[in-house]
Amino acid sequence: MRLFNTLTKKIESFMPIKPELVRIYSCGPTVYDHIHIGNLRSFIAADTLRRSLRAAGYKTKHVMNITDIDDKMIARSHELYPDLTPEQALKKLAQKYETVFMHDMTAIHNEVEAYEFVHATDQETIKSIQRLITKLYDAEIAYIADDGVYFSIEKYTQAGKKYGQLLDLTKQNTSNARIQNDEYDKDSIHDFALWKTRKDEEPAWEFSLDGHELLGRPGWHIECSTMSTDALNMPFDIHTGGIDLIFPHHENEIAQSTAATSESIYATCFVHNEHLLVEGKKMSKSLNNFFTLRDIEEKGFEPLSFRMLCLQAHYRSQLNFSWETLQAAQNRLQNLRNVATLRWQAQEMSKDPIDLSASLSEIQASMLDDIDTPNALAKLGALCNEFDNRLVATSELESFTHFITEIDALLGLDLMQQKDITKDQKSLIAQREAARQSKDWERSDTLRTQLLSEGIGIRDTETGTVWYRT
Ligand code: AMP
Ligand code: ZN
Description:
By secondary structure, the protein is an alpha/beta fold. It contains 15 helices and 19 strands.
């Protein structure tokens, strides 16, 4: 398997640390609202990575966090539930939108059962975050300020560690200012908050540090450092997220995790997906140019069409979202499904068999080449065209079914779910065939129209009538 690693800026041959299990951590959603489809692009990329590793023969442990405490969570929980205590309001908000998130993940066929989901506000996580902050403080890399505990970039670099492993920060401005906001701008280096002491009406946890009582809450970056290494140990294999997370989030995760240990590697490979754009701009809540999966469904599109749209682009390329491109993706998905339904229409015929196991290997090879989904889909499309023309022979039904099952495991497009038509619909097709043979064109047309009204199209081939869903 080859993967582009943001740490080296190269496509590398991927080697797991322990051959028997690839350990992956994906930055998950902040559950303060519906996630948008830009976020979903990131989660589809992570899901496709895991599916590709599986195709390469690896077992995986895939951890995704749920950010259920941060500035946005607190603001929204006040807004929605002003009558609850801050802790109750936060919990209610998180539960509500975690349920929505899981629904969205399932709808686009990310394999939720293949992940271990971890939560920032779990008691054990909070304790573990506090232990890490204490360790950083004891190593004199963290310091206490009037509004929280901060990470000192200067102390970190003085300890011989490199700040700027994922991107070149030497050219960027270094500022003495401390930053409390988790999502600070991209062109300056700041000491950042590990722990924020309580402001009015915020959910908070007790924390004693060196005789100071620091009732408060964790910063965003330390949550991921803690949850990833608690679940996967350090170093682990692959860390994923969108490119906007490279700095400061992932850079800070590396710094926090490696500061007070002799281990200099946090994760051996960072895989970052490019953004989903709208009219050339990153889809984001702040620009108010976002759509959710609900918007897509309300416009009559299937969630899986969005998965198809994402797979059509390489994960490291920007992808412009429009309703026209979504429609084209839905049509392409439908074409694949119509080929998959040929398994219900296998015919006795003598045709040279297609070597499906070789085709599957080629498609898998594209996926193992830095997850080249556009190439994999092009190969799959070319193969489907062949079947569309020559149909499936009874003798190749087993290998065809196996092939479609494996493609589903790889791409998550759910092609095997395509059902057979009903007995009544089959009878209509047989009646039309009889009408045609007796040259009763009017009845033949009526029957075709009736089938069309039920979403079934038909075409006549040299070996008989073939149906497909419109
Ligand atoms: P957030 O909840 O903002 O931390 O985002 C969750 C994931 O979505 C992160 O990996 C982000 O990098 C990613 N993300 C956010 N916006 C986009 C976008 N427009 N396109 C692709 N990924 C995105
Ligand atoms: Zn994270």
